[in-house]
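Justification of computing resources. Each target in the renewal requires a structure prediction run like the one illustrated here; the chain below, 390 residues long, is used simply to show the kind of job we budget for.
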Amino acid sequence: MIRPLGVQFMQGNEACVYGALDAGARFYGGYPITPSSEIAELSAELLPQFDGVFLQMEDEIGSIATIIGASAAGKKSYTATSGPGFSLMQENLGMAIYAEVPIVLINIQRNGPSTALATRPAQGDVMQARWGTHGDHPIIVLCPDSVQECYDLTIRAFNLAEKYRIPVILLGDEVIGHMRESLTIPELDKLEIINRKMPSEPVEGFKPYKTEQDDIPAIPPYGTEYIVHISSSCHDESGYSHNAPQTADNLVRRLHRKIENNKADIVQVEWFGPIDAEVSIIALGVVSRSAKQAVIDAQKKGLSVNLLRLITQWPFADDEVREVLKKAKAVIVPELNLGQAVQEVERLNSFNTPVYSLSRIDGEIITPTQIAEKIEEALYKCQRDFTKSI
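Resulting structure tokens:
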């Protein structure tokens, strides 16, 4: 196969596949589901051409199990799904987090709950991506807003998964997955590709979950000279079950530390418009496209509006959101759900800044006009409150 290079015109779902291949992924285990099925279809076509393996499973439970196993054997592995399938993957997602097996899970969100509007967009999995599996656990979630970012962030997802030995979720939506637009695919030698660190100590006495100051273990793949035991039960540095309370406490706290202590490397945002603005919009995914147009339209009217786009949804961009809440007179959070991201914004609002939620759950996207109306409403209330105070 001739690898696409330079300016291309393709679908977001297709761009995810090329990003995965360029990141070095060579195994896909999945089950087709709208609106992510094109990822499975193209992976089935292309992976064998890259000496890779595509495996269709009987359901999403088996799908995520296969990619955990393939990754434990040393292959960069991924799957794709949507809301109902994402729900089925949650138990094994928890295992991968706990056992520190790097995988990439692409979730192209659709309207829900249940089957609902299977071909329509939504952002209803924001909180499921964070808390879908049980227990206290960290997670990394990235949100593309373009076909270019479907490619770029898929590579970044693999890099973060490998670097921090954690599952990474690419949280797209039906519009981003199915839209077609131009993107640029660079030469392979222009890409930064990160591979998981490997052990360097002697085989005798080796402990796969022993970590240094970075809290990230160097776990070799199955089949090497090292003996590796991976368990979803509480385990000590050997990888074998160890149920002492202090072992459980140490393990979970270390899992959190390796992410929290590296938020400066993990968290990625985009500022659009003036840094200091009277009204700030906080958005992610497809809604941020409408938000950008709303910012442009507002500036043409002489209004002071900007956008903070959350490229990294989890861990949450606490510092950047606090900066918005501190400077703005009002904050608007538009999202295709009944207010999942806005909860996190309000959690950080010690500044008593007015926060306005803008929700849509009918399978249609939030338009620039709807956001513009919310901007006018926020500015009117700010002016009215100011008048009352004097």
